[in-house]
Amino acid sequence: MLQGKKAWVNGIRLYYEEGGNSRAHTIVLLHGFLSSSFSFRMLVPYLAKDFHILSVDLPPFGFSDKTKKFHYSYKNMAVTVLRLLEEANIERFSVAGHSMGGQIALNMMLQSPEKIDKGILLSSSGYYARAKRHHILASYLPFFPVFIKHYLAKTGVVGNLKSVVHDQSLIDGPMIEGYAEQFEDPRIFPALARLLRHREGDLSVEALKEIQTPCLLIWGDHDKIVPLSIGKRLAQDLPHARLVIFKETGHLVPEERPKEVYEEIASFYS
Predict the structure, then answer these.
(1) Could you give the CA distance from residue 141 to residue 144 in angstroms, rounded to a whole number?
(2) N or C: more exposed end of the chain, with fewer CB within 10 A?
(3) Catalytic residue among 37, 64, 99, 123
């Protein structure tokens, strides 16, 4: 339904998918950590009826580049997505971010509030500090990417999915393959080391209170990765926010409750 495209933006080759209703309002979809545009595969068919969609693979994930030259801070990722939209001649849009993608979305709202109509935060990360100094120093060691590879391999893709999905029956072959595909490229592990090094931490309470964009927050009550308490704090600190809680739902709300997520987004716009 969406067409895969690539663009050279902010010094990196960015992969994104575009489609849906070309005459409608644009929603930019931003995935979470260790994920890609694949995580929105269940939600996109619903959104595509009413919205024009850009789903971006945030570097170094998915099919976007994993270069050593890119600065993998949240601020720079937000800059990169905003420049992509400029090149696509999209002047006004909304942004939906899942997990880590929620922090990128919030950074975009701070940087270009005049361009963003609404924000949708799906189990967004929040209030996480920057990595500790000894972890940042360790990321410069030559063997550190190998350590990351072995660390992730301990639980594997299936283990990671079990931690983010409440209903384990949803985990099937296509889901496992879709989330595992990007790790076939060995360049992702040095890039993840740089992400740990460059990530500046989540936005402060003071920064959150500056955001005037209306925000819809959607959370699962069984989220083990970003607990509901984070969603409640964000709903208090963002000036114009509404929190919706899904029962019997984990962290991966776009996969677990795509129809309900779409209905909440549609209601938010109507």
Answers:
(1) 5
(2) C
(3) 99
